[in-house]
Amino acid sequence: MHGKFHHESLYRGPELLEKLAALRVALCGAGAIGSNLADNLARQGVLKLRVIDHDPVEEHNVSTQLYGEGDVGVWKVEALRNRLFRTTGIEIEPVRKELTGGNARQLLKDSDLIVDAFDNFAGRRAVQELARAASVPCLHVGLFEDYCEVVWDEGYRVPRDVAAGDVCDYALARNLVLLSVVIASEAVMNWVADGIGRAARRRCAIWPCGTSGSRHLRVPSPARETATARGACLLLGERPREFPIIRRQ
User: Fold this and answer.
1) DSSP state letters, the chain
2) CA gyration radius for the chain?
3) Contact status, residue 202 vs residue 66, Cβ threshold 8 Å
4) Which residues contact 206 (CB under 8 A, 6 or more apart)?
């Protein structure tokens, strides 16, 4: 009988799975991106996963996050621990604390890789400052207004907080969340395999149709034009690729 990582082994090989099993990942945030990304990484072979979050599951989280109605009221890190153990048999390390500049070093210690999935300026900045001070590789994954981005820390600029409402209060939020999670997962896999993500300082940004959000990012002019003219593009380095997406009404 095949093991639970059979398909990953077929594609990535046993050597990469061994590296993933030994990798110590600190995932900051267990919300829309964090919970779904934790699920992806666990199913891809990451066995040592620390998840940091201090919020409980609320009913409106069910539409974009990994949790179900039965998890409402439960601390997100505890709900995530239970869910991942049931589905993958992996026991994550849940940390129910708010990460700040004062405790970041303690909460992120002994990490081989930090993944920032926070949705606020203060949290993202605290993660970035610690990652740079401790020279720990860090991948930032997040939504902002009506686009999302996956950026290695060398090229990352912490975005301001959304002026009003929740960053997920957007019609295509779940689609953008899942798309960014897929890209972030592959960025982690590539980095574990050969360090390509960090060394190349690649940036990936995703815009939905009808947005001018490209002004927020420092990307080459041809890529900016592609993003605004064609409506929906995936930007990786300087080679934009179009992907189908439902047009906003």
Assistant:
1) ---TTHHHHHHH-HHHHHHHHH-EEEEE--SHHHHHHHHHHHHHT--EEEEE---B--GGGGGTSS--GGGTTSBHHHHHHHHHHHHH----EEE-S---TTTHHHHTTT-SEEEE---SHHHHHHHHHHHHHHT--EEEEEEETTEEEEEEGGG--PPPPPSSS-TT-STTHHHHHHHHHHHHHHHHHHHHHHSHHHHHT-EEEEE-TT--GGGGS---HHHHHHHHHHS-EEEETTEEEE---PPP-
2) 17
3) no
4) 147, 148, 149, 176, 179, 180, 183, 233, 234, 235
Could you count the other beta carbons within 10 Å of the beta carbon of residue 100? 11
How long, in residues, is the chain? 249
Tens of pLDDT, residue by residue, the chain (249 residues): 678 888 888 888 888 999 999 999 999 999 999 999 999 999 999 999 999 999 999 999 999 999 999 999 999 999 999 999 999 999 999 999 999 999 999 999 999 999 999 999 999 999 999 999 999 999 999 887 667 789 899 888 898 887 666 667 666 788 889 989 999 999 999 899 876 444 444 455 554 433 443 333 333 323 333 333 333 334 433 333 433 333 333
Please give the pLDDT value at position 146.
67
What one-character-per-residue DSSP string does 18-79 give?
A: HHHHH-EEEEE--SHHHHHHHHHHHHHT--EEEEE---B--GGGGGTSS--GGGTTSBHHHH
Domains of the chain: 8-201 (3.40.50.720), 202-249 (no CATH)
